[in-house]
Each structure stands twice: as C-alpha cells, then as structure tokens.
C-alpha cells in the first residue's frame, strides 16, 4: 500500500468514504486524502456543514444521513453500494461532558446509536462490499482495501466505573479486532485508532471554546499524521500520544478496585 502515490487520469484514483467526515478529525482525514489525489465521499447529518463543504471543497461528494436512524442509514448504504471504494473511515462519534453533566436519555440514545449501533451497521455493510470487490478483483493500484474506525484512548481502559462513551469505544475496539481477524483471509486490513485528546471544534465547544487545558492535547494535523502512519504500517490498534499510552498501560496494571477509586475521584470533578 502506498498513500503517497499521486493519482492521475491513467492511474485511476482510489475512493475513500469518511462516515462522520463533515467536521473535525473526519473532515481533516477527508481533506488529506483529497490532497493525495483520492476520490472522496463524506457522510454527516448537519446541512450547514454539508453546504460549507460543497462550497469549500466541490471535489468532495457529500451525503446527508442521520446515523441515529437505522432505516435512513440503510438507504444511504444501499445507495453507496452502487460504487466501489478502497477505504472507509468511521469517524462519526458523539461525546458529552458525561462526568460533569448527568447523562440524560437523549444523549444516552444518541451516543449508543452513533458510537456503537451505526458503527456496526456501517462496518457490516463495508466489509461485505470489500469482500465482494476482492472477489471481482476490483483492486486499484495494488492498494490493500481498508476499514478504519476512530475509537478513543478512553476505550483502552478496563474498569467498572467507565462512562458510556468509554464503554462504547471499548466495544468498537473489540469489534474492529474481530473484523481484522475475519477479513485477513480476504487481504482486507482493519485498523482501529485510539487517540487521546484532539483539538477539534467539537472538543472546544464542550470546553467553553478552549480545550488547551486537556492533558497532552494534540492538533488535528498531528492526529492526521499519526492516523495515516498507523494505516500505512497496518497497526491493529494505534494508541497515541505515547505519554497517554504509558499512563493508561500503567493504570491497567493496577488492581481494579484501586483503579476504580482513582478514576472516580479524578473524573468526578466539574472541570
Ligand atoms: N476530539 C477528540 O479529542 C477525540 C479524541 C478521541 C477520539 N475522538 C473521536 O473522534 C471522532 C471525531 O471526533 P471530532 O472531535 O472530530 O468531533 P466532530 O467534529 O463532532 O465529528 C463527529 C462527526 O460525526 C458526525 N455525526 C455526529 N452525529 C451524527 C449523526 N447523527 N449522523 C451522521 N453523522 C453524525 C458529525 O457530522 P454532523 O455534525 O454533520 O452530523 C461529524 O462529521 C469521534 O468518534 C470521537 O469520539 C475524538
């Protein structure tokens, strides 16, 4: 696989679909692939974001879909089945300040639907599509087909007091690992990204416009570089930044009741 190839008319451009590609890390990854010469499609639910992408990046194809609605999601997937693709990134996600504000029913439904249920629906469809393509030898430029999902470092810790966000991302990590094993015989790669804080607008919005106090926060550009490197090196579970990885690895070695106590006292603060 070579993500640095420049694609021309003779050298047919591969196609990437970024689900949750209308803002934040998903849009940054979509833009990066566009710069590399890929054909890019993004999916999101916000009409204002879609219109802004249509005017700013007319080369990107946009699809409006509310992923919390499984019927709407299925009809989008049926539509997308008409075209082949070589990479899909699932970057859609929902998060709140769950520890500061009590998780209400609306946020709970949304988080479960986007972080877990729609993810499973999309990965199930995408893996079937890629398998079918691999059998029809629809391989472009020797590029290994790939499925990528954006989980979170929060999902790498195993403790009973975890939030719904952490639990849904943990389930995403486990699901991606199962898909990786299942798709290996088809030569389809699956990578899961478990990053720490990324300085996106969504994270800033949750923190009164400034997320710079978040530990080891990284820029979106740094996150894109790390994610592309993980895809290039076919890393099963990419955990970064390194500082956060060391901390979570250390915490995972503590006895569960101690870990639970530490996280409970650390997380239940209004900051
Ligand atoms: N930022 C961080 O610190 C951080 C750290 C670790 C992991 N992550 C993960 O990275 C991913 C992206 O986060 P981000 O910070 O870039 O946030 P973001 O800008 O809010 O991106 C979320 C994406 O999901 C889409 N989405 C949300 N609800 C949707 C719905 N109902 N239907 C269709 N699409 C929907 C959004 O599109 P619309 O608004 O158009 O619907 C948007 O494109 C998330 O999965 C998040 O959990 C983020």
Structure description:
By secondary structure, this protein is of the alpha/beta class. It has nine helices and seven strands; from the N terminus they run βαβαβαβαβαβααβαα. It has a seven-stranded parallel beta sheet, with helices on both faces. Strand 1, helix 1 and strand 2 (39-44) form a beta-alpha-beta unit. Helix 3 (70-80) runs parallel beside helix 4. The longest helix is centred in the middle third of the chain and has 31 residues, at 105-135. It starts with 14 loop residues before the first strand and ends with a helix. The model has no long low-confidence stretch (mean pLDDT 91). The structure holds NADP nicotinamide-adenine-dinucleotide phosphate.
Major beta sheet summary:
7 strands, parallel
Mean pLDDT over the full residue set: 91
Our count of helices gives: 9
Amino-to-carboxy terminus distance: 43 Å
Provide keyphrases for this structure:
271 residues; alpha/beta; Rossmann fold; seven-stranded parallel β-sheet; 9 helices; binds NADP nicotinamide-adenine-dinucleotide phosphate
Summed up:
By secondary structure, the chain is of the alpha/beta class.
What topology emerges from the helices and strands here?
Blueprint: E1 15-19, H1 24-35, E2 39-44, H2 47-56, E3 61-64, H3 70-80, E4 87-90, H4 105-135, E5 146-150, H5 164-183, E6 189-195, H6 201-206, H7 220-232, E7 237-240, H8 242-252, H9 256-267
Parallel strand pairs: 1-2, 1-4, 2-3, 4-5, 5-6, 6-7
The structure holds NADP nicotinamide-adenine-dinucleotide phosphate (NAP).
NADP nicotinamide-adenine-dinucleotide phosphate (NAP) binds at residues 20-26, 44-46, 49, 65-68, 91-95, 114, 150, 152, 195, 197-198, 200, 202-203.
């Amino acid at each position: 696989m070579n993500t640095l190839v420049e694609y021309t008319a003779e050298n047919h451009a591969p196609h990437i679909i970024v689900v949750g590609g209308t803002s934040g890390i998903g849009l940054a990854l979509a833009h990066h692939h566009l710069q590399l010469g890929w054909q890019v499609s993004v999916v999101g639910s916000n009409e204002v974001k879609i219109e802004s992408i249509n005017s700013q990046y007319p080369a990107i194809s946009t699809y409006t879909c509310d992923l919390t609605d499984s019927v709407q999601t299925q009809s989008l997937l049926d539509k997308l089945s008409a075209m082949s693709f070589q990479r899909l990134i699932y970057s859609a996600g929902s998060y709140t300040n769950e520890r500061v504000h009590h998780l209400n029913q609306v946020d709970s439904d949304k988080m479960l639907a986007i972080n877990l249920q729609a993810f499973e629906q999309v990965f199930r469809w995408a893996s079937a599509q890629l398998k079918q393509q691999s059998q029809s030898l629809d391989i472009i430029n020797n590029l290994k087909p790939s499925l990528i999902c954006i989980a979170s470092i929060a999902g790498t810790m195993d403790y009973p007091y975890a939030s719904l966000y952490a639990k849904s991302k943990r389930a995403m990590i486990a699901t991606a690992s199962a898909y990786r094993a299942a798709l290996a015989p088809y030569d389809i790669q699956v990578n899961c990204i478990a990053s720490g804080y990324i300085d996106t607008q969504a994270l800033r919005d949750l923190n009164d416009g400034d997320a710079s106090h978040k530990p080891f926060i990284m820029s979106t550009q740094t996150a894109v570089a790390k994610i592309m490197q993980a895809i290039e090196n076919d890393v099963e579970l990419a955990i970064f930044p390194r500082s956060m990885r060391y901390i979570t690895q250390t915490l995972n070695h503590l006895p569960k009741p101690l870990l639970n106590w530490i996280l409970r006292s650390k997380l239940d603060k209004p900051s």
